[in-house]
Amino acid sequence: MSIEIALQKAIWTRLGESSDLPALYENVPQKDGQINADWPFVSIGDDTHAPWDTDDSVGSESTITIHAWARYGGRAAVKAIQAVIYELLHRHELDLEVEGFSAVAVEFEYSEALEDPDGVTWHGVQRFRIYIERPV
């Protein structure tokens, strides 16, 4: 399994185990160009991966972006979801089970909460940097 897929599955599993988070989507359901999901929800967004190899291990320095979406409760609703995600991931490398790899570090990088142009949707964006490795 590739590093990219193993890490995405690990993040998906870690977030999906929490009863404190709303529905989790990789691809947000849409119908006729409109979001067709129960609000609020969380989606896993873009990721990046760069080699993080040593003489005796292969690894990845990766980032993953996670989105929180809410229509009721405003900015506070999105920030409450982001707080749960932060608590599940930041510095919880030992709780992140990446198939075939060991998580070395999971670090929070940033978050923001934005009002969408429709005036009713709030969108939270968070990014985490994750280091994983395995011996060669």
Characterization of the model:
- This protein has 136 residues and is α+β, with helices and mostly antiparallel strands.
- The chain has a single domain, classed as 2-Layer Sandwich (STM4215-like).
- Helices cover 22% and strands 44% of the residues.
- The protein contains two helices and seven strands.
- It has helices at residues 3-16, 74-89, and strands at 23-25, 30-31, 34-35, 41-51, 57-70, 102-115, 122-135.
- The protein has a five-stranded mixed β-sheet, covered by helices on one side.
- Strand 6 and strand 7 form a beta hairpin.
- The chain is elongated, with a radius of gyration of 16 Å.
- The model has no long low-confidence stretch (mean pLDDT 95).
Could you give the topology of this structure?
Elements (H helix, E strand, L loop, with lengths): L2 H14 L6 E3 L4 E2 L2 E2 L5 E11 L5 E14 L3 H16 L12 E14 L6 E14 L1
Parallel strand pairs: 1-4
Antiparallel strand pairs: 2-3, 4-5, 5-7, 6-7
Keywords summarizing the entry:
single chain, 136 residues, alpha+beta, STM4215-like, five-stranded mixed sheet, two-stranded antiparallel sheet, 44% strand
**What CATH first level would be assigned?**
Alpha Beta
Major beta sheet summary: 5 strands, mixed
Provide the β-strand percentage band: 35-45%
Q: Structural class of the helix and strand makeup? A: alpha+beta
Helix count equals: 2
* Order of helical and strand elements: HEEEEEHEE
Nutshell version of this structure?
By secondary structure, this protein is an alpha+beta fold. The chain is 22% helix and 44% strand. It has a five-stranded mixed beta sheet, covered by helices on one side. The protein has a two-stranded antiparallel ribbon with strand order 2-3.
